[in-house]
Fold these 2 entries.
Entry 1:
Amino acid sequence: MHQSDQNTALSRIGRASDALAQMWDKVDLHLGPELSEEMTEAFQAAVQRHLDEAESVVDRLDSESELEDHQKALVKLATRIGGDADPALQHAKARIRALNSETPDEPPEPIPEPKSREPDKFTDKEILSLFSTLRRH
């Protein structure tokens, strides 16, 4: 898989929790009490499966912001079905700590010292000749 394909796949994984929560919210908004029991059970099963697989999803996310967004969505989804997101949340927190420890505190690049310049050495005659053309006009 190419790097861009991997990034796209990881991006989709990170958004899956949020997308599932948003989809369920929209279905509720439009159908509300008309949502069939079969459809409700399908959503609950999808959320439970997502919670069960959440730790493997967390392992594939590489940025703190993606992990934080994923945590928020997991809490929302777990609340929705009365499920337990705690194992996945703890795993995500550990992943964030691991990512932070992998990022070395790099010292800033040193600013190069300006090269010392020798002072310009001009004779009075040379300086006068620079301006002589201006005086003639």
Note: The CA atoms of residues 101 and 107 lie 15 Å apart.
Entry 2:
Amino acid sequence: MRRYKEMILVGGIAGVTLLSYFGYAASIKGSDYEVENVQKGTADELKKIKIEIENGDIKPTQYHIQLDGQVNSESQNYITGLFNNYAADFPSDFYRFISKEDVFTSEIGPRTYGIKMNATKLDYHSYDKSTQKQFKKTLDYRLAVPDHETSEVRVFYQDGMNVYVQWNDRGAKEKSTVLLLNLAKGKVETLHSKRLKNNLERQYVVVNPYGIVYREITYDAEGIDKDSAYYLDNGKSVKHLKSLDAYAAEGNFSAADDDRSLIAYGMFDSESSKSIKWSSYDFKTNQVKQHEVEGQHIYRFNGSHTMIVKNKLYHIANINDSDFQVTVIDTKNESITYQGIIKDKNAKKNRLIQDVTVTK
């Protein structure tokens, strides 16, 4: 009987605590966002850009903001705040697949990939958040099966129905392999395979008509990276891309929308600036070119978000503790096509950019 009374007492205290929490959380005044256009883009362009901001309050709230002025908020209660909200980003069947222990997952921009490999087949699933479309394919597979304890498998580039996968095997003999998943034909092909020294790591970047581009990192005896460089393997010879040496340590270069260049962001001189900078590498000329436009406000580099879709660079960054500057740049013309400010009229602090989606 005594134990029963103790349970009632504990339950009562817990109930009062939860009620007190909800009462306190409900009394907190939240953010009130509006979009102020500095340089207005087209209506169609503004509808495509969706920005997700989350506060750090006791009662977390996510704000879904479109640059055409639409703002929706979604508050999480105490219970949902205890759990990972990751599952809500995907269709239930896709989330079940990528949650399996024998599935390798990776991301490129708005796309999330899941790959499962066994002795006779490869199961490929992908989900594009910008289009909300899922793709599934089972491919014939007759290669070795990765050991999940010693292997890393990730998609590093996709060109239409061709998906390029890096498989790092860190077993007794370390090896790095590039697989081509031909989704149209349902076949898997080995494009490149190389045994590596124990102090080397290889990160593949892109496959294009010039060859396979990868970044190689060398580590010292303590496991600290001491050197890095970009290389181009055209199947006949390997070329050191010396013009990228100054950028290799950062490792920011990725595939541009065309087949003849790479693009990199994050080349900044200070932690706060009005200038938005990026760099491009041209395979034909073997040269790096610097690009720069100037925004309306000084922004903070730390925590900024940058992405590129169809030759448009999207840059979102804090200009103070509660407001964000959004800039859309045409990378071909090096001109700003849109700039605006997402303002919180209540000036609440510690707001974070959770996600940026550009629908196609």
Note: Residues 1-29 have pLDDT under 50 and may be disordered.
